[in-house]
Structures are given as C-alpha cells and as structure tokens.
Amino acid sequence: MSAALAAVPEPTRVERILPEHLVDGALSVVVFGPGRGEAVVVQLPDGRLGVVDGCKGPSNPKDPRGTGDPVREFLHAVEAHRGLTEHTLELEFVCLTHPHDDHYAGLGQLMSRYSGRIRRPWTGPHGGRYAKALMAYIGKTRGGRDSLPDNADLKGLEAVILEFANARRRCRLEFDEVRRGAMLLPPEDVAGHPLTITGWGPAPADSHAALEDLYFALTELTQGMRPPRPRNPNLTSGALLVRWGTSAVLLAGDLLRGRGGTVGWEAAHGLVDGPVQVVNVAHHASEEAHDEELWRKMAPALAIITPFKNAMTDKRGTRYPPRPDDVKRLAETSVVAITARPRWAEGSLRLLSGNGVLPIQTGGRADDIHNAVAVSLDAEGRVSRLVLGGKADLYP
Amino acid sequence: MSDSVFVKRPPRRPRRYRVFELPEHSGFLHRVDTRPQRFLVGADEQVEPPEDQLSDAPVNTTLYLGRVDDVEDSIVSATVWEHPSGRQGMVFLEIDADFEGPEPCFGDLLRIWTWVELPGGGVVTPRKRVQVERRELSEAERAELQELVDRWKAEEE
Hints:
The complex is a heterodimer of chains A (396) and B (157).
Chain A: H1 2-7, E1 12-14, E2 27-32, E3 39-43, E4 49-52, H2 70-81, E5 91-95, H3 101-104, H4 107-113, E6 118-123, H5 129-141, H6 149-170, E7 176-177, E8 183-190, E9 193-201, H7 204-222, E10 239-244, E11 247-251, E12 278-280, H8 292-298, E13 302-305, E14 313-314, E15 317-318, H9 324-331, E16 335-338, E17 372-377, E18 383-389, E19 393-395
Helix pairs in contact in A: 4-6, 5-6, 5-7
Chain B: E1 18-19, E2 33-34, E3 58-72, E4 75-82, E5 88-94, H1 95-98, E6 109-120, E7 123-133, H2 139-156
Antiparallel strand pairs in B: 1-2, 3-4, 3-6, 4-5, 6-7
C-alpha cells in the first residue's frame, strides 16, 4: 500500500472535471460514475479523444450541448477549451463494452450527435448481433410493455445499434469487435513512445457461447417455454488496455471472472506484459469480477471504482457492488478512488413508500452527474495528476 | 342563437413531451412517449387494491408498477416505478411470502399495491398485494422470432 501511495500524487478536488484539469501531452482518462451508469473519456497524449460506454441518458436528450450527460458536457467543454467551432470535435473511437443500460443508455445520443465524426466504432461480441438478439429476447419477454420507463432504456440500446449500423453505411466504417487479443488501435508512435489499444476481453469462446445461449433461449420462447433468465451480458463484456510507453490503463468494463464453463478474466492472464498502473475496476469492483492472480500481476497503483446505482443492503447483506469487503480488498494493495459514496456508506436507506409498507431503495440522483475521477500518466508509467470531481473521494 | 364557431382540431401533444425520433425499424418495440426526467406511470391503472384482498377500508393506498429483474433463491428483485410520479426504486420480494399463483420470472410485470387498514383499537395493519403479468407470445410473434433466429444463424454461417 505504501508503494502505491507514493506512486499516486495528492488529489486535486474540484466540483466538476474540465479539460484543463488533464495534463497536456499525457495519457489521461476521465471515469464518470454518477451513480446511474459508467462512462470513460480517454484523452490520448496527442489530444485525440475516445469514449468507452455512456452513462444513463440525459434528462433532456435533445439539448445539443448534452446538458445532463456528463460525457457530452465534458466533450463540449473540450471544444470550448480548444477553441473549436461547436460540433467539430472528432472522436478517435467510441466503444460499447456490453449491452447493459448503465453502460449504453447515453451512448446512442452521443453517437447520433457525433455522427460522421467517429473514426473507429468498437462493439461487443459478434458486431452487435449479440445485442440485437438480447434486445429481441427482452422485448418479447416483457409483460405490460407499454408506457414504462424501461422501454425507453431498451429504446436506448436500439439507438446504439442503429448508430453503429449508420456509421457502417454512411461513413463506410467497419466496426471492430472488442475481444481478447484484438488490436483495436494498431501501434503508432506518439511523442516518441508506442501507443496501442488492445482488447483484453471477452474470450472468443465466451462470446460464442453467449450468442448460442441466446439463440437457444429465443427458440424456447417460440415454443412457448417459460423464459429462462438470459446469460449475464457481463460475462462477455469488453475490456480495453490502453498502453503508451510503459504506462498502461485497463478499462475493465463489467467483465466477470470465469464460472460455470466460462473463461472470463482468466483469458487475460497471458496478456500482462508489465505493470498496469491504473485500473477502472471491473463490474463496479464486485467480488465476482475480481481475479486475484491477474490483480497481483498488474499491481495497479490506482484503482477507480464506479459504484453500482443501487450499491446497498438487502435481507442477505450488501447485494450490489461494491460491497464493503470488495473495496477493502483493493485498498490493501492500491490507492482506491470512488466516484461516489456507495449506498451502504450513506447510513439508513430512504423509504419511498408513503405508507411505509414497502421498503424501496432508490438509485442515483441527477445532481451527481459530475462525480468523476480523472488521472493523467506520463510515458514512464508515473501518475502525474489525480483529480476528484463532485463527490468522488479516496477510500477510506 | 350564438354565432360562436367551434373548430375541431386534432389533439396536440404538450410541448413538455418528447418522442424518440427513431423509426419503427425493428418491430421489437412499441413507440414510447417520454418527457424530460420522469414518466407518467400507470395512468390507466386501477389504484385501489383488488376488492377481494380487503378486510377493512384501505387507507393510504400506493400503487407501483415493477419489472422482475432477477429471481434467485426465492428472492425476487424488481425495479419499480411509483404511480403516477414515475419515481424509480428497487424492491426485494419473497416468492413464498409475497406471491400467489405461478412464480414470477424474468421480464414479468408486477403490480404492487400497498395500503394500511385500521380495524380499530389503535391497530394499524400494513397490507400488500403483488400481481404478476406475464407476456404470452402470439403465434405470429413466435413465427417472427423464429424467422429472426434462423436468419441470424444463417448469417453466422
């Protein structure tokens, strides 16, 4: 722990992370965790930008400046900071790691706004076919489908799929599939050091099995069988490693440890070829996503956690990540930055039920959208700046 | 005789409402009207709990519409939205204690009424009723789904 502490500078605390808080010429990531999703903006050392996932959609999606969406607000601030005309900023890549609404919901609007200005669209398994099949499954199993907000969430996934298809047709872009070993950004020299982005997950075998499972479930539906719960999309979540010189940042998505015949993180063991200084921890730091051997090999100085929207307790203890033990375990070897305090750290739960009969646990609040952690690294693997935005803090 | 002129016009959508601009290209989903932030949830739903569930007059009734997210070890987790505000939350229910009839499964719609009854003597009895609605596919939908799966599988090959 002491070595990790020494490797991470004293954090700067701000209300909202802005482009000027990132170090020019460094590799930077801004991890947004507003308590209703997760998104990451990557700023490459030469200034190019990429986006991995989108938080939950903004409350006013048609606002051209993206007010209410932390990613679009940040990108708009980048345009202003660089003196660019509005709507001219280009994105080097946009990546959807997996089709869960806390990762895709805001991405469709973002891709629509940046249509024609995205150079590399990266999708999850099977070029989006998995997401399409999942959407068909969910759409056909939902009782009382009209007029519920989760239909709008599903509409958000449809929007992302549509935007990927549009990128292919309008701009003649082939989108790359995020999987273990995929060279998403081929090696190039940036400021005298090699820069690459590679896929660390999912294992191709897991992707194939997940799609086969979905096809099987859909076929069962057509035969009038009781709908089984679909395989968890986290098992095939994409994970990216950004490496520049000896600096490395792992954006782990929600990829889980292998179980029940799946490979999971085990597939990444052989990919570790040096320390990974910063890790955006997989699946909100859940125990199910923690691979101890991989963690020891990476030896990260800084672990960034975005708490799940309902990280809280139920009758059987804390059910949604991060659980207190999960965070404690990471803090034994790394400095831990959390984008917001988990629900279990906030004391008693709020009851929404007016008559007090039904305990209802609430998710994130709109005023949390600027909860984020930004970190900049030089090419020698040193963390040169750490910025905590909104309610983000170090643990404990 | 009045000289007023009444002109019938088609109803206009209030400006605060938003409609997704996506065309109905996939056929998977119904068109969904939304408005900034919260939905108006369950406007056509019956707010009073079912008559056969009442022992005394229901007081302080609240209705939630919910979606089953997961069923694990007899615990059902569901996302719920309060009627009519659309405030969202999450609940955990027990299959044995909270449900009657067939067990809920992934995707089912839940109607959850909660209320209290005051039988007298200062006693307050909390009451809860959970109703499950499952989606049954029509023959046409099954055929459509099978066609989709067959097409995707063929494209794979």
